[in-house]
Amino acid sequence: MHRLTSGGSLAAVTIASPSATWLQAEPRRLFVHSAFSRVVNLRSADGQFLTLLTRDNDAGPFAMRLAGRQLPSVPVGVPASAEGGTITLGDWQIDWHGAAGWNPTLGSLEQPSDVSLSSLLNSLRKVDSIFAEAVLPLSPKTGRGARGERAHASLFHDYLAVQTMHLLTMLCAGLQGNERALTEAVRGLLGFGPGLTPAGDDCLLGVLAARRMSGEPARILKTLVGDLAGRTTALSAAFLREACNGRFAGQWHHLRDALAAKQAALIEASLRRILAYGASSGADALGGWVIGMSLRNPSTEASAPRYLAG
Question: Tell me: the pLDDT tens digits for 89-105?
């Protein structure tokens, strides 16, 4: 996708409500933390993030969506400022006076017990069968996926199989009440993998989304993630802290609404939306979400993950 290279004015269409409150409180000095074709992450000196997104992106917990489908071309480190409803970024002015506020707080399902594990697995298989078998290994053969076919490279594939399986086993035990196992899992998963949001972090975010949808407090999990967030990247820690406070990106809201509507087509579309996020972040997060929902709805069905039996 092309980037906008000459200066000018842009307008924001939506902004996460907590970010709007933060920007309005006082003038802010920021800098470009990271930049991609459809995402520019700004960071303040005190560690707060503001993400600029193209209009065709889902909203984020600390994001501002702009009216167009292109973002300014700005290198990492370029200073930015925010004051009086305007963000100055290099030669660009971003006006967010008229931006609609978006609430990133994810609501719980009214009847989470109605969410069937088997129906979730069926939907996931329709969306991406190879990924489904990697997340939920029914057998060693199908669990590894067929080479050359579409599969999301993620925490759940076999390039990290031994260590991954141990961490997921500890995570599952922890989510079932073993605090020592939960501590080991969180310590091991935070910062586990490459990238701005490592795979292990994405998995934990998915678990937190499942707990949030299920209406479960997850107090110990949130405390551990919050206390240990310094072990991972600054951007990933920001997403995890937002998740601990119940705030998630728009694709999780779409999934929650689809589950509440109990419409298979909407659920499948929502799963695709999450899987399409990033190179592998969506896949890792969705894997964590499936684990969280599976343990929220214990099942003796043959389709349950092997590692949930431990």
Answer: 988 999 999 999 999 99
